[in-house]
Amino acid sequence: MTYGLAALDAKDIEKVAHLARLGLSGPEREAYAQDLSRILDLVSHMNAVATDGVVPMTHPDAAGLRLRGDKVEQEIDRDQLMAVAPQARDGLYLVPRVIE
Amino acid sequence: MTLTITKIAEDLAAGRCSSRELVDDALARIKTHAALNAFITLDEDAARRDAQAADRARRAGGAGILAGVPIAHKDIFCTAGVKTTCASRMLAEFVPPYDATVVRKMKAAGCVMVGKTNMDEFAMGSSNETSHFGPVRNPWDHKRVPGGSSGGSAAAVAARLVPAATGTDTGGSIRQPAALCGITGLKPSYGRVSRYGLIAFASSLDQAGPMAATAEDCAHLLAAMAGFDERDATSLDAPVPDYAAELGKDLKGLRIGVVAEHFAKGVEPKVAEVVREALREYERQGARLVDVSLPNSAHAVPCYYVLAPAEASSNLARYDGVRYGYRAPEYQDLEDMYKKTRSQGFGSEVKRRIMVGTYALSAGYYDAYYVKALKLRRLIADDFARAFEQCDILAGPVSPSTAFALGAKNTDPVSMYLNDIFTIPVNLAGLPALSLPAGFADGLPVGLQLIGRYLDEACLLNAAHRFQQATDWHARVPAGI
Predict the structure, then answer these.
(1) What does residue B446 show for φ and ψ, rounded to 5 degrees?
(2) Is B149 considered catalytic here?
(3) Are B339 and A67 an interchain contact pair (Cβ–Cβ within 8 Å)?
(4) What is the pTM assigned to this prediction?
(5) Residues B369, A43: C-beta atoms closer than 8 Å
(6) What DSSP assignment string belongs to chain A?
(7) Do B352 and A68 lie within an 8 Å CB cutoff?
């Protein structure tokens, strides 16, 4: 049983994959279209429950989100951090040219 | 052989063995049982060195109960200088420059890490089959899954390779593998254990916890892991009880809520019967069973499969091939680099969830999916609050079935997701819950789930401990172990 939410086709998947910066082949798009449609079908069962006026719950209430002072708490050595980068030089991360 | 921390601590204190011997033994056992594929990385030299340091510290006096005990960390916890892969090609060569708070605290308590355990990629899975490093096998039957996502930790403890391991639980990832492998595993209350250095999957649900043979061991481990951490914005600033000291209280008058929906259709009859028999043991100990209902829990799986992927799609956006992790070898431009890096670096289940989450958060669908799920989450949490007006803890099966065959469900994501139908509501509400061995169905372990009030881990651990004082299911080990 579905509740009127759309099934996805390969074109929808292409759009979602682009938003998520995932490159997919044609057959992958077809397969994911089927998978995601089935998952959204499962998800659509949420619509059986009336939720008017319910306050959304983003995280367990008791936890809360604490802010801290804007001061340095910890320093990991810059060279150590950059040592795990795929490509870095002179303290800079290297990426393909974005400004001509 | 029952290898418990309590027993090991006695032996160490009495000088019957050294930490170095325990570590050598653990490493040898891991190699003997390499077919389980429970570990991704071993850290042998450091483990031997740390064990010797623990032995020296013990001779100098003042060693705590965990001092010199070999443990393993799920490969989702950052370990300074030791590869942390999250079972993904994306992080296959990643060596973190810092320790997760859990790792740091357990080190401070004297635990000796022997290695990092296998898991589902980025903790996304219920069978350990999504690991880039291959599936873990269930020590009770190598043709079956150990559960997931903390499958390597569960298998390692079940096969007594190590007495304890850490896990993380976003929708059942400690409790379900603990149940399927016949060990004890605790998911603490959200905020109880720091998430700093724990590679993020779904930040409002993720929680780290202990996995061991007994509840008593879990009590010692939780005491070491838990506590406020300035570096985790959702860490709870509350005192940590001495969990082990609170064990042993009798259960007379304890009200156990039996969740009607957790015995409904879909649960294997033999699993339900083992769990009912466990509840009769509680009655024999003076506890009172109360029927309770969690009417909205039927919608927990749909709700979770919006919220967890939504949070994952955001958390995993950081893997772009720039600052750390995998980068595709060939690309045209920046966007092409992102796309190739991410499609080659992530496995298919991770990509599936990123796309579900991206879709649910995208313009035009945000209210219908994401906000709707957040509202349902509130209703599910409210159900628990109402149930706890009538009882002190809730009980039911951890999983609707025992360990299933490798390959049986990994081609059908929806049937895989339904494994976590009884564990997911707990994460949505942020409550503590524990899985303990309750018996066997056709030779495979069955787990009993106990769910507690927020921050009431002590009550759960005590209830599990009392059960383990009266039964020996937790002491059973697979053939050949």
Answers:
(1) -120, 135
(2) yes
(3) no
(4) 0.97
(5) yes
(6) ---SPPPP-HHHHHHHHHHTT----HHHHHHHHHHHHHHHHHHGGGGGS--TTPPP--S-TTT------SS------HHHHHTTSSSEETTEE-------
(7) no
Show which of residues 256-315 on chain B sit within 8 Å of chain A, judged by CB atoms.
Answer: 296, 299, 301-303, 305-306, 313
ipTM above 0.85, yes or no: yes
pLDDT digits (tens, 9 = 90+) for A49-73: 999 999 999 988 766 678 888 888 7
Check: CATH 3.40.630.10 for B5-255+427-475? no
Q: Which of B88, B127, B131, B149 is catalytic?
A: B149
The answer to whether B265 is a known catalytic residue is no
Give CA torsion, residues A42, B382, B353, B264, to 10 deg. Answer: -40
To the nearest whole Å, the CA of B283 is away from the closest chain A CA by 32
> What range does the domain containing A12 cover?
1-49
Average pLDDT on B385-408 reads 97
Pair of tokens at residue B146: 């150990």
- Do residues B75 and B84 make contact, with C-beta atoms less than 8 angstroms apart? yes
**Residue B348 designated active-site:** no
Residue A66, chain B, CB below 8 Å: the answer is: yes
Supply φ then ψ for residue B183, to 5 degrees. -125, 180
CATH of the domain at A4: 1.10.20
Per CB-CB distance under 8 Å, the chain B contacts of A17 are: 355
Judge whether B154 and B184 are in contact, CB under 8 Å. no
Q: What are B158-198's pLDDT values in tens digits?
A: 999 999 999 999 999 999 999 999 999 999 999 999 999 99
